[in-house]
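Renewal narrative, Specific Aim 1. Our central claim is that a sequence can be written position by position from structural information alone. The example that follows is taken directly from our test logs and has not been curated for this report. It begins with the structure tokens describing the chain, in the order in which they were read.
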């Protein structure tokens, strides 16, 4: 997958999470989980962009490591929302699948560059 494709895909993921966050109930538990998800999902896109601007191979690998952590963390927060939510099950499943796919893609990239 091309760098530009991943930049677009991770930005789209962040935008979809922002849309989801705006629709979450205003109760404390939803807002707490929602804010954590908002932080981790937007970090995926930001660190992807940063990785491709890395000054060295080592810096690139480090940034990709952050992307992996944040994508995986996003998946965790989405899972929690799935378990406590009655609504948006289908949308949450799609977002969880995307978080898992991004984690797998960037893990593959990291392994390739570490080898």
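The sequence written for that structure reads:
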């Amino acid at each position: 997958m091309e760098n530009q494709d991943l930049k677009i895909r991770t930005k789209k993921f962040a935008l979809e999470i922002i849309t989801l966050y705006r629709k979450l109930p205003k109760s404390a538990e939803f807002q707490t989980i929602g804010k954590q998800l908002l932080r981790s999902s937007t970090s995926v896109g930001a660190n992807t962009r940063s990785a491709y601007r890395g000054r060295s191979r080592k810096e690139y690998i480090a940034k990709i490591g952050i992307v992996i952590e944040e994508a995986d963390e996003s998946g965790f927060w989405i899972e929690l929302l799935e378990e406590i939510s009655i609504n948006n099950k289908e949308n949450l499943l799609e977002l969880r699948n995307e978080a898992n796919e991004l984690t797998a893609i960037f893990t593959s990239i990291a392994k390739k560059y570490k080898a």
